[in-house]
Design brief:
Blueprint lengths: L18 H52 L5 H14 L5 E7 L17 H7 L5 E6 L7 E7 L2 H36 L1 H14 L13 H66 L4 H28 L2 H6 L1 H15 L4 E6 L8 H22 L3 E8 L7 E8 L15 H11 L3 E6 L5 E8 L15
Parallel strand pairs: 4-5
Antiparallel strand pairs: 1-3, 2-3, 5-6, 6-8, 7-8
Pfam families: HATPase_c, HisKA_3
GO molecular function, one term: ATP binding
EC number: 2.7.13.3
Length: 467
């Protein structure tokens, strides 16, 4: 039977996940946020560091240029030397220097070449462009035009190497933390899975299920309470089965006694009355007396038919005289007479007559009630009753299957208002059997029952299955 433990459908998808999954997702989100915030802080720090380093190099080069400017107009013999010295400043890291003379325009600042740095990282940490221009006068000409352009390419490349190492370390730590927490949570939630499995077992009425003894104190107490509850339910089920079996036994004994008394006592009295009426009729009395005798014979015959039907309802005498298969065959024949338009097929294994005599009446009652329900509620065109014996030698099982192609049922039948199926189930469980119902709207109705030939010794808790 499928588990009936369901999450409410009106909740969000996240709340429908298991607790373990939700905790893992929350931890994953928190670690992702930590990594994201750490990455943002690292990028911000790198951007600031690159800007400061570039600005410092640019200001150093600018002070050297400014020192040349303060010396005033340079003579021609010193201009070439100063120009060579300034050009050497262009070899400084993070600074590009351009020197032009006269009216020629200065070239545009170069774009930094970063072949090993991702474009997204370069865009994030690259500082705003910084350009400084100065004119160094000479005694002849318009002077030297000097342009200093900040070039953070080298600094960005170095920052990328450090940042990649740092981010990789953060990701490694976050992944390690998540793996460790996942393992710890998995170990911590193992009792939860065991408890859920135990609740499903109780829902399926497997009261012999027990939880292990957990090492954690809280789960240990929960397991103790669960096992105690399951044990009480198991004992209650066993007591109810024994009580039901005893009540059914008493009921069948009363039915048998009443049937025998009707057959022996009342039958003999009616037979005597009929014989007296026939003897009066044979004496050729007056017409009123003869008509009265004929009326008495007719009424006695009617009472015979009524008593015979009552005896059969109380106790099928054929069951005691000819066995289970013959009694079921007679039952099927009566239904064929009442429902000639329905095909009733009976297949009975001869080994079914070896079923314990005290329990055969229960099999008969189950088939009787199942056929009554089928014709009353399902309106089938074909009913099949099959009775077989399992091949396993010990313990042997009697398999009873009753199938009809009627309308079926739209709700779990055992939860309905009727007591027919519940009564059959109680009979089966009292004998330590297994009971299962398969049905669906428009798919017919199938009743599968398994009964042991003999109960296992010292079995205080009979077996049963869910319907």
């Amino acid at each position: 039977m499928a588990s009936r433990l369901r999450m409410p459908e009106n909740g969000c998808m996240f709340m429908q996940l298991s607790l373990k999954t939700r905790v893992n997702l929350i931890i994953a989100v928190i670690l992702t946020l930590v990594v994201a915030i750490g990455s943002v802080l690292v990028v911000h720090h790198v951007r600031k560091s690159v800007a400061e380093e570039t600005r410092s190099a640019l200001h150093l080069a600018w002070e050297m240029v400014e020192a040349s400017h303060l010396q005033g107009p340079l003579p021609d013999e010193q201009a070439a030397a100063w120009r060579s010295m300034l050009e050497r400043l262009g070899q400084l890291r993070h600074v590009r220097l351009f020197i032009l003379q006269d009216e020629r325009p200065l070239p545009p600042p170069p774009s930094p070449a970063l072949p090993d740095v991702p474009a997204w990282f370069a865009r994030l940490v690259q500082p705003p462009p910084a350009i400084l221009e100065q004119t160094i006068p000479t005694r002849q000409g318009r002077g030297l035009q000097v342009r200093l352009v900040a070039d953070p390419a080298d600094e960005i490349a170095e920052a990328w190497q450090e940042t990649r190492l740092f981010l990789g370390l953060i990701l490694l730590l976050a992944g390690g933390c998540f793996a460790a927490l996942y393992w710890v949570l998995g170990r911590a939630f193992q009792p939860v899975d065991a408890v859920l499995g135990g609740l499903v077992a109780l829902e399926q009425e497997r009261y012999d299920h027990r939880l292990p003894q957990f090492p954690q104190p809280e789960w240990f107490r929960i397991a103790q309470a669960f096992n105690h509850c399951a044990g009480e339910l198991q004992q209650t089920r066993a007591d109810n089965c024994r009580l039901t079996r005893q009540l059914l036994k008493v009921e069948e004994e009363e039915r048998r006694t009443l049937a025998r008394e009707l057959h022996d006592e009342l039958g003999q009295v009616l037979s005597g009355i009929k014989m007296l009426a026939l003897s009066i009729k044979q004496q050729r009395p007056a017409e009123p007396t003869r008509q009265a005798a004929c009326l008495i014979v007719e009424q006695v015959d009617h009472l015979f038919e009524t008593i015979r039907a009552m005896i059969h309802r109380l106790r099928p005498l054929m069951l005691d005289d000819l066995g289970l298969c013959a009694a079921l065959g007679a039952l099927a024949d009566r239904w064929r007479q009442q429902r000639p338009q329905v095909r009733i097929q009976l297949q009975c294994d001869p080994g079914a007559d070896d079923f314990p005599a005290g329990h055969q009446i229960h099999v008969y009652r189950i088939v009787q009630e199942a056929l009554t329900n089928a014709f009353r509620h399902g309106h089938p065109r074909h009913v099949r009753v099959r009775l077989t014996v399992a091949e396993t030698p010990r313990p042997r099982w009697l398999h009873l299957t009753i199938h009809d192609d009627g309308s079926g049922a739209a709700i779990p039948p055992l939860r309905g208002r009727g007591y027919g199926l519940k009564g059959m189930r109680e009979r089966v469980e009292s004998l330590g059997g297994r009971f299962q119902v398969t049905t669906a709207p428009g798919r017919g109705f199938t009743l599968s029952i398994q009964l042991p030939f003999e109960e296992e010794e010292n079995d205080d808790h009979p077996r049963h299955a869910c319907g």
